[in-house]
Amino acid sequence: MEELITKIKEYKKKRNAVILAHFYELPEIQDIADIVGDSLELSQRACDVKADVIVTCGVRFMAETAKILNPQKTVLLPVMEAGCPMADMVTPDDIRSLRREHPDAAVVTYVNSSAEVKAECDICCTSSNAVKVVESLSEKEIIFVPDQNLGNYVSRFISNKKFIFHNGYCPVHHCVTVEDVLRARAAHPEVPVLVHPECPPSVVDHADFAGSTAGIIQYAKNSASTDFIIGTEEGILHSLKKQNPDKHFHMLRDRFICANMKKITLESVLHSLERMEHRIELSDEIIQKASTSLARMLAVK
Ligand code: 13P
Ligand code: SF4
Questions:
Q1: Ligand nearest to the CA of 129
Q2: pLDDT 10s digits, 275-285
Q3: Residue owning the nearest CA to atom 5 of ligand 2
Q4: What is the pTM of this model?
Q5: pLDDT tens digit string along 203-219?
Q6: Which residue's alpha carbon is nearest to atom 8 within ligand 2?
Q7: CB distance 84 to ligand 2 below 6 Å
């Protein structure tokens, strides 16, 4: 492993590259990354990258977001098959037909979506800023795609708008059940349950906190509690433990794993830098349209 890490560092210098990694990546990938974050932070930080090459250790929509925000740079995704099944659940045609049905509605697209879908929407959001994004809109009707669960979560905070949800979901979070929460609470009484808003509404109802991956880490840091039940992908444990060495984390359920996030390995990162692959290529038209939706999101404070 040490040899691989040394080679990655050498190539990173040679290529003038920066490595971005999501909290769900393998521990060794998070450790070699220059920036580890949730989707919002990765998008924000991708905007100020000075390097020539961005290696995205995450899933394809994250690499596409980095490319849309940095069209002049080379953006690499070490494993092209690292996709997000939820992102694949919505198409540009779905958005066009929803718009025809609801012509006065604003279309809000979770960043877990393709560049082509981002190009069709009015504004993007992440799980960190979704409530603020929707609040910032003057429209009274909101088409929220693709995550029905995040959409439901956002609608809890906003009473003066009508929501039209798409039926997408994250296969990793959607299968969490209330029984999982009750079982974890019985095993760890009095311990707060922290979940991602991609979990079903009934699970959010039974949790003490719902938030993005960065929100969950922040909650654990600020809380006086020493133990936490974690209801999101288990890769987050690495950053949780690193940032809170004296606290204890218990998974809400076994095998809480996004297989796509785990496709990126040290070997694939090295190959990616050596061979300069796989490059994210998007048409100028898609970049221009999708960047408008992302820029609108990033302007929401
Ligand atoms: P975060 O933006 O909370 O990191 O979520 C990304 C993701 O894919 C969750 O499944
Ligand atoms: Fe997509 Fe779910 Fe994996 Fe996140 S955890 S990348 S939403 S499949």
A1: 1
A2: 999 999 999 99
A3: 258
A4: 0.96
A5: 999 999 999 999 999 99
A6: 84
A7: yes
**Residues paired with 210 in a beta bridge:** 195
The identity of residue 64, as a single letter, is E
Q: Considering every ligand atom shown, identify the ligand nearest to the alpha carbon of residue 58 and give its number.
A: 2
Q: Is the CB–ligand 1 distance for residue 38 below 6 Å?
A: yes
